[in-house]
Design goal:
The complex is a heterodimer of chains A (about 180) and B (about 290).
Chain A: E1 2-3, E2 10-18, E3 21-27, H1 33-40, E4 59-62, E5 65-68, E6 81-83, H2 97-104, H3 114-127, H4 133-139, H5 151-169
Parallel strand pairs in A: 2-6
Antiparallel strand pairs in A: 1-2, 2-3, 4-5, 4-6
Chain B: E1 7-9, H1 14-23, E2 28-30, H2 36-41, E3 49-52, E4 62-64, E5 68-72, H3 77-82, H4 84-89, H5 91-97, H6 103-106, H7 111-117, H8 123-130, E6 134-139, E7 142-147, H9 148-151, E8 152-154, E9 157-158, E10 165-172, E11 178-186, E12 193-203, E13 209-217, E14 224-227, H10 238-251, H11 262-293
Parallel strand pairs in B: 1-3, 2-3
Antiparallel strand pairs in B: 4-5, 5-10, 6-7, 6-10, 8-9, 11-12, 12-13, 13-14
Helix pairs in contact in B: 7-8, 10-11
Classes of the chains: A alpha+beta (about 180), B alpha+beta (about 290).
The complex binds flavin-adenine dinucleotide and FE2/S2 (inorganic) cluster (2 copies).
Chain lengths: ~180, ~290
């Protein structure tokens, strides 16, 4: 059994598929997935707010579905395709539809909550490509933002859905990273 | 805000998990983790060994038949909520699950896990009790079925013995001439309710009131179901609804905390009792109409 050099506790070698790339890391079983992404893999796009499931900042996509990365252990996450905010750009590295919409609509201020909103909305508009305002509010009801007052985030949901529909019409919807 | 160290196992067969649990009764089962991981992170609980059951494929199923709905320990809240056949057979599942946490939490949390967690503020323990459901548990000794009435023995405490893993739950179908409703008041949608209830209401063949049963959340220490039938000898009107609220309160123990005073919770119980019975009555009449015209 390997021991961690810093905490002298047993570690396991795990494989995580994140944004289409397989990473290997040595982690103790208690490593939260959010910490594994940030500390072990250096993917600091995923933010950590409350660390007990309430704020939504750490939301990532697990096989395409939004889940709290602070409420999973990294050792439990090896069977899934994980997508973080870094994986939601277009293949050429430019902003993906939801990211572009947040820019267009000024959907962020400090940006701390934003990664969790981007991932949640990406899954939301995949399921409902044409939400109305009430559906947009419902989509983001599990995420907290302390800056914006949400109005511009709701506008961003509607704009993101619009961009996604335009993409689909132009036939390049499929290329976007998952 | 980080869990204390523990050892970890991730069996892919139920028999392996049961053997591991039998070998270390101090271990804990990890299902969706949506209650357990926050408790561990806040160090409200420490665990020497975790047995993660998420790799056990056979626990991941939902079966709806005319008898009722059976769902495995890995059926996620979101899957049960979205299951059309389950909704048709027993509509209370969908109605109550709409109030369980946020969609993101429902994607990972399991309904069986929330039943076993036995939080009197959780929707699904009381739904199991209200519907007269059962939980099936397994150990290396074999399987046994526990009726909801015998399952919840204290706050966050069930009749499961150490070494037992809950493998599936069953709720019977909604009988003919019955209707349901569920509603609650929470500070934010998706938060635990300050008070809430589900009602199952039965009609007689000529449309009178045959039975009214209500299950309450967040106003007692364990899931509670109150029979309110006697409040409606002559059907449902404003005064019988008030009487039902008072009758229910005789058996509830609303307590004050930072979110709501005891008096406010009691007032919510009165208001919601009237509202939800009215909705269940409308639902029963609509279903009866469908049954008659079908
Ligand atoms: C922000 C937030 C809001 C929430 N709001 C609500 C809400 O409004 N209503 C509500 O009802 N819930 C709410 N929840 C909790 C959620 O519903 C959980 O999913 C559920 O309570 C527990 O299910 P789980 O699968 O996540 O279980 P876990 O967290 O994995 O386990 C919970 C407990 O049950 C035991 N356990 C689980 N499965 C089994 C099994 N098969 N056999 C034996 N033991 C088992 C575990 O050992 C542990 O002690 C919320 C959670 C969060 C983070
Ligand atoms: S950090 Fe995970 S929900 Fe707040
Ligand atoms: S932009 Fe600051 S918290 Fe949302």
């Amino acid at each position: 059994m390997t021991m961690s050099p810093t905490t002298a506790e047993p570690v396991e070698t795990i494989r995580l598929r994140v944004n289409g790339v397989t990473h290997e890391a040595q982690v103790p079983p208690r490593r939260l997935l959010s910490d594994a992404l940030r500390h072990d893999l250096g993917l600091t796009g995923t933010h950590v707010g409350c660390e007990h499931g309430v704020c939504g900042a750490c939301t990532i996509l697990v096989d395409g579905q939004p889940m709290r990365s602070c409420l999973m252990f990294a050792v439990s996450a090896q069977d899934y395709e994980l997508t973080t905010v870094e994986g939601l750009t277009r293949p050429d590295g430019s902003l993906g539809p939801v990211q572009q919409a947040f820019k267009d609509c000024h959907g962020l201020q400090c940006g701390f909550c934003t990664p969790g909103f981007i991932t949640t909305i990406t899954a939301g508009i995949a399921e409902n490509p044409d939400p109305d305002r009430a559906e947009a509010r419902d989509m983001i009801s599990g995420n907290l933002c302390r800056c914006t007052g949400y109005q511009n985030i709701v506008a961003s949901v509607l704009r993101a859905a619009e961009i996604q529909r335009e993409d689909a019409q132009n036939g390049d919807g499929e290329e976007q990273g998952r | 805000m980080k869990p204390a160290a523990f050892t970890f196992q991730r069996p892919t067969e139920l028999s392996e998990a049961l053997a591991a649990y039998a070998a270390n009764p101090g271990a804990k089962i990890l299902a969706g983790g949506q209650s357990l991981i926050p408790l561990m992170s806040m160090r409200l609980t420490t665990v020497s060994e975790l047995i993660d059951i998420n790799g056990i494929g056979e626990l991941s199923f939902i079966e709806a038949s005319e008898a009722g709905v059976r769902f495995g320990a890995l059926a996620r809240h979101a899957e049960l909520h979205a299951h059309e056949e389950a909704r048709r057979v027993q509509p209370m599942l969908h109605a109550a699950l709409s109030h369980v946490a946020h969609a993101t939490i429902r994607n990972r949390g399991t309904t069986v896990g929330s039943i076993v967690h036995a939080d009197a503020s959780g929707e699904m323990p009381v739904v199991l009790t209200l519907l007269g459901g059962t939980l099936t548990v397994a150990s290396t000794e074999g399987r046994r079925e526990i009726a909801a009435d015998d399952l919840f023995i204290g706050p966050l405490e069930t009749a499961l013995e150490s070494g037992e893993i809950a493998v599936e739950a069953f709720v019977p179908a909604l009988p003919a001439r019955h209707g349901i409703a569920f509603d609650e008041i929470a500070r934010r949608h998706g938060d635990y309710a300050l008070c809430g209830l589900g009602v199952v209401l039965g009609l007689t063949e000529d449309g009178g009131i045959e039975s009214v049963r209500a299950g309450y959340i967040s106003v007692t220490e364990t899931p509670i179901v109150v029979d309110l039938t006697e409040c409606f000898p002559d059907g449902i009107d404003a005064s019988s609804l008030v009487a039902a609220g008072e009758k229910a309160l005789e058996q509830l123990e609303p307590e004050g905390d930072i979110h709501a005073s005891a008096e406010y919770r009691a007032q919510l119980a009165r208001t919601l009792t009237a509202r939800v019975i009215t909705a269940a009555h409308a639902d029963a009449k609509a279903r009866l109409f469908q049954e008659v015209t079908a």
